[in-house]
Amino acid sequence: MRKVKRVTAVAMTMALGASLFGCSGSSSSTTGGTTAADGDEDALTYASITLGEDYTDLSTTIKFIHHKTDREEDGTMANLIAAFNEVYPNIKVETEGITDYAEDSLLRLSTKDWGDVMFIPAVDKADLSEYFIPYGTVEEMSEYINFADQWANDGQCYGIGYMANAQGVLYNKQVFADAGITELPKTPDEFIDALKAIKDNTDAIPLYTNYAAGWTMGAWDAYLGSITLGDNTWINQKFVHTAEPFKDNGDGTGAYALYKILYDAVAEGLTEDDYTTTDWEGCKAMINNGEIGCMVLGSWAVVQMKAAGENADDIAYMPFPITVDGVQYATAGADYNYAISATTSEDNQKAAMVFVKWMVEESGWCELEGGYPVSKTAETSFDFSDATILSDAPALEGEEDLLNQMNATSELSFNAGGDSKIQEIVEAAANGSKTFDQIMEEWTEKWNDAQEELGVEVNQ
Fold first, then answer.
1. Model confidence pLDDT, tens digit, residues 161-174
2. Which ranges constitute the DSSP H helices of 344-435?
3. 83 C-beta neighbours (distance < 10 Å), count
């Protein structure tokens, strides 16, 4: 059963309960106009809009919900909207930052009364057209943006990233220099040696796990496939069909090598003294001040660490320390994606399309966040030239939801909030309750059981 469908059932129950008590929210009964999916040459599309010329006299109010509560609090969002209104003064934009966005947005989405623009939560791609309008075909949108196929279905693009992330390792250059590290590590063994050098020669914590935050542990999943194997088809196409995805390849590549880095670092005392006391907000100043050597996080974190103290120039980003046939790889992909409601009014869909295009091409928000570029026309200062950049290929036709089903059935949740399984690696390494191989065997058993239950064809 699909996740959104489950949430929809909950939301319908909530709505029924509200009606029994005489409470009801307003809902839009007006559906939108012609969109790209309708095949009309005059359809509303991203490409059909010329910013500053089209819809300048359109007058309406739209609502944008998102997860960037920090940008609501520091005034960034208000400043972006003010700049937008210099070009489109009659399109009013109400914004709401939601703390528990992943769950709250799904509940709101199921009511179809959430607003006009949102960041796409964890919905099934097969359901995209039920909730959102397309921006145009994937082929057409690929002329304007990177990652046009990330939220695509039936050849249509339904999502555009507000920024993108590359996957590597955040580190403090001064700490590495003080430790005597003259070349960045390119393999798991070299990385562990670098952590040992930091421990022996500095007062810094070599690798900060950020265990207590939980969600930060899930960042390790993002390195599967392209980075660990140099294969951009692995994570979305081959993983679900692989009999032993967690086996030791014997050459420092693959999922085994990825997660063993974390296990070994903890087991050898190369992380914080007490993993339960890590502090997400506090670690930003700590790495800026040279109290932490490195952290495994997406490139989105760079700007936050730079802003956390007076040593912004010490904060840097390097490729993940796995090398495949002499090459280091990095993945880049869009973060949360803008999407436009399929159930709002035609005027609001036009206004929303204008707003999204302006945010992507003119606002500079991606650059402000230090993001890998989404727009192919906006200026960027992002540089990650030390690695070969790959973008994960989408799932095979007819298998768009199979990884989601495997994640749910196995309860391993790769790239889907599987924080607890990574936390368990830290716990086992710290207290010696399980060897790393035992953990990998348990994961394999759960994966194989899920394949059998779902009737997945397995390639040996």
1. 999 989 999 999 99
2. 346-361, 365-368, 402-410, 419-431
3. 13
Please give the backbone phi and psi of residue 385, each rounded to the nearest 5 degrees, phi first.
Answer: -80, -10
Q: How far apart are CA 420 and CA 211, in angstroms?
A: 10
* Within-domain flag for 432: no
- Each residue of 144-162: pLDDT tens digit? 999 999 999 999 999 999 9
CATH code (residue 158): 3.40.190.10
Structure tokens at 84: 């937008």
Check whether residue 178 and residue 323 sit in a common domain. Answer: yes
DSSP 234: I
The boundaries of the domain holding residue 362 are 3-8+31-163+335-385
The token pair at 27 is: 């809902």
- Dihedral (CA of 415, 419, 425, 430) sign: positive
Structural domain contains residue 18: no
Collapsing DSSP to helix, strand or coil, 425 comes out as: helix
Residue with tokens 């989408």: 394
Residues 235 and 95 in one domain: no
CA atoms of 164 and 182, how far apart (whole Å)? 30
| Same domain (yes/no): 346, 200 | no
Q: Which residues contact 282 (CB under 8 A, 6 or more apart)?
A: none
Q: Same domain for 307 and 199? A: yes
Domain limit, last residue, from 316, 333, 350: 333
Residue 451 is assigned to a structural domain of this protein:
no
Cα dihedral sign, 6-9-10-12? positive
- Could you identify the residue written with the tokens 């679900």? 240
3-class SS at 133?
Answer: strand
* Residue 324: CA count within 13 A, CB half-sphere: 22
Q: Where are the beta strands (DSSP E) in 18-90?
A: 60-66
Place of tokens 């796995």: 322
Same domain, 314 and 364: no
**Six-digit token pair at 368?**
């402000």
Let me know how long the chain is: 460
Dihedral sign computed on CA atoms, order 400, 406, 411, 412: negative
Lowest mean pLDDT among 25-29, 232-236, 357-361, 396-400: 25-29
Q: Which residues fall within 8 angstroms of residue 50, CB to CB, at 6 or more apart?
A: none
Q: Is 137 helix (H, G, I), strand (E, B) or coil?
A: strand
